[in-house]
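Changelog excerpt

This revision adds worked examples to the README so contributors can see how folded entries look when concatenated. The first example is reproduced verbatim below.
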Amino acid sequence: MKILISVLIALFIGLQYKLWVGDGSLSEVVQLSKELDLQRAKLNELKQRNSVLEAQVLDLQNGLDAFEEKARNDLGMIKQGETFIQLIPGPGALPNRKAK
């Protein structure tokens, strides 16, 4: 009977060791769970970024309006026959603020 109790205690200690310290322990599961949450958050950010880029690509492929707007805003291009006018604020002018 003492041998059986000794074997059961040894088995119990071995299982507790594996639960708390060994591979697949509770601390490792918690750490991997946190890492999984971080990876899911990154994945959602990348999915949103990809959808924005996809929309931009579709706009550029389907119409000249987006292409023209990008050329005007980013490159400062104008159409033939247009006159470019740049307004420079005076020294006392307040910066343009958007209404909330």
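The second example, added in the same revision:
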Amino acid sequence: MELVGAVTLLALLQFVVMGIMVGRARGLYGVKAPATTGHEQFERWFRVHYNTLEKLIVFLPSLWLFGYYVGQYYAAGLGGIYLVGRLLYALTYIRDPATRGLGTLLSDLPMVIMLLGGLIAIILEGIHR
């Protein structure tokens, strides 16, 4: 499960870097804490970071359970696609939120595959006991 662990740490690192970018945008655009609005570019960074947090809640358990019940190589591959999708989502959302579709798809699709695939694998294992 080393690969699943590596993907987990990369996802968390990606989230931390996005948080740093939010802090940078806060200073750059003069949005004083605790405000979460005030400048459109800051709000975009804030939204990217928060949306990624929302995804992590589903992504991380799905990644680990899929890795355990289906296989770590499949989980790591799907997790890698998720990470690329999150990066693409961030870059496109910052430029123009209307163009975030591909990044959203590349992060949501592997997450849903792992969520449903892990659930099916758990059910099948339970049936075969």
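Reviewer comment on example two: The mean pLDDT is 96. Residues 40-69 form the longest helix (30 residues).
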